[in-house]
Amino acid sequence: xxxxxxxxxxxxxxxxxxxxxxxxxxxxxxxxxxxxxxxxxxxxxxxxxxxxxxxxxxxxxxxxxxxxxxxxxxxxxxxxxxxxxxxxxxxxxxxxxxxxxxxxxxxxxxxxxxxxxxxxxxxxxxxxxxxxxxxxxxxxxxxxxxxxxxxxxxxxxxxxxxxxxxxxxxxxxxxxxxxxxxxxxxxxxxxxxxxxxxxxxxxxxxxxxxxxxxxxxxxxxxxxxxxxxxxxxxxxxxxxxxxxxxxxxxxxxxx
Length: 255
Ligand SMILES: Nc1ncnc2c1ncn2[C@@H]1O[C@H](COP(=O)(O)OP(=O)(O)O)[C@@H](O)[C@H]1O
Ligand SMILES: [Mg+2]
Fold this sequence. Notes:
This protein is an alpha/beta fold. The protein has a single domain (2-254), classed as P-loop containing nucleotide triphosphate hydrolases (Rossmann fold, 3-Layer(aba) Sandwich). 42% of the residues lie in helices and 19% in strands. The chain is built from ten helices and eight strands. The chain has an eight-stranded mixed β-sheet with strand order 3-4-2-5-1-6-7-8, sandwiched between helices. Strand 6 (156-161), helix 7 (165-180) and strand 7 form a beta-alpha-beta unit. It is globular, with a radius of gyration of 18 Å. The two termini are 13 Å apart. Magnesium ion (MG) binds next to helix 1.
């Protein structure tokens, strides 16, 4: 199963991605947490050691190695077995959570840019070798680099928003793009909700069908981000109500 997380900067995408990764890992899934946001922080939030993260090469650098193996023929789509050992080289492991970072692709609509993108998504698709594998992609709000082809494998996109007009506006833009791309399930998650008034605001903006859930603002989640090396996997930074959300998400995609 492949879950993409998007939304405006600072809304809680990385925190939610890490919470999901941990919750699925605790349920026995093999999880691949993928940092696809240029503002990399998922690895640290998951509790991977800083020195290991500093040494981790982005997946985009794998492209040349794959091309060497295939003679540059672009045949990597059928290469899953051969890419397997490369994936180990480009990822870190912590229990049953694997972590990798995509690396940034040159901006602009050049042919070269498209090729790199399809490469990245071919690698992502090759991660799903088992139906119990869970891929969680922490993305920025800029999902326009997704194409119909590359987003095909995404089972659900969760767009995180804060209870503010600006954040909701960004969520709407992402929602529209995601629907245009043909992503089957597009869900909104309201985060950092502090009051009944803010809750009402969210309900005034989104239908029950659109909403995956509402997560309250929680000092402990915030504190965790301030503590260095606290690491989500060590037990703190848990979003309130995350277990129910995970169950709902699982029901949603298997429906
Ligand atoms: N429910 C919450 N309550 C309080 N603080 C939160 C909550 N969710 C996220 N945060 C905090 O908000 C900040 C931004 O979160 P982050 O996950 O890095 O956002 P993004 O990845 O969308 O930029 C972090 O300091 C994080 O700890
Ligand atoms: Mg982030």
